[in-house]
Amino acid sequence: MLVLGIETSCDETGVALFDSEAGLLSHALFSQIDMHADYGGVVPELASRDHVRKLLPLCDQVLSDAGKERAHIEGIAYTAGPGLVGALMVGGSVAHALGYALGVPVLGVHHMEGHLLAPMLEDAPPAFPFVALLVSGGHTQLVRVNGIGEYEMLGESVDDAAGEAFDKTAKMLGLDYPGGPRVAALAEKGTPDRYRFPRPMTDRPGLDFSFSGLKTFTLNTVNAAKDAGEFDDQVRADIALAFESAVVDTLTIKCRRALEQAECKRLVIAGGVSANKRLRAGLEKMAAKLNAEVFYARPEFCTDNGAMIAYAGAQRLVAGQRDGDRIVAVPRWPMNTLPAVSEPRQN
Ligand code: ATP
Ligand code: MG
Ligand code: FE
To answer: CATH 3.30.420.40 occupies which residues in the chain?
Structure first.
């Protein structure tokens, strides 16, 4: 089945063509980051309008890159949530209009399931069951994954997401959005152990996370350095490294616990923060000690993209799942309420 995937949940317009037999054929992405930069964050109305402008040209682009035409499309998947409702509505409207015109099934996909399954697009994908660490701009979750749509929530952040903490730290250090890659680049020049930041919630049992205290600790460190007249490039790099090390250690400790608790030898990491090199290295070192393996997607499929939505949608469309007549747009949508891929879905 040739599936067109559409991602418009936030500030990235992503489109891809995935063939259930031949694999990923093409993908294209337009990021609105520059447009929102002047406002210091994503402006929902501007995001929706820009998805309207970019979506159809990107659809044409992935078709032409794959040497296909609209008439070849056999199913359409779009991000139905979680995300900004206006932005979601754009993807859902285009998906349903195209599906109606072409007479093909359409399905709304869960954005985090997309992230979760993105590593499946790589060579040597993980087998089920596995433990997944979802670390993105809006989520930090540990999930036991027994199959597609079989998700058992093991733990999650009680406040900020890991990506959000990176973005806020970036701001304190005078870096632009998205902060993750910029903090990571600055941390390369940091002096190890110049500062020691806390590893929140690692000294007690459980698999939940909290990153807001770490954010405050970072702010206090920044302010103390400023007051002392020491806030130079080296100190900024040292703070970046101390922050990144604290996040990596915290995530690694919880992942080890989750693997042991779930008696699992496979760890999948997904979402924007899973592109972080120090995190990948830390988890691989930990996993090696447990005789476990770590799986992740190429960096461009860690952050938002159309390929993950085309992939996740294809698995469900092939199994016969599809939307009814209505566009689905769910701004808040817990992933563990999804049906297993084999169960019929009702909207
Ligand atoms: P969600 O998927 O939860 O709705 P989102 O779609 O905004 O949120 P993603 O696109 O998955 O999130 O990821 C973006 C986040 O990933 C940002 O917070 C960004 O700073 C972070 N990020 C991207 N690359 C890196 C990196 N190399 N190191 C750390 N963080 C990173
Ligand atoms: Mg984004
Ligand atoms: Fe995302």
So the answer is: 2-117+302-337, 128-296
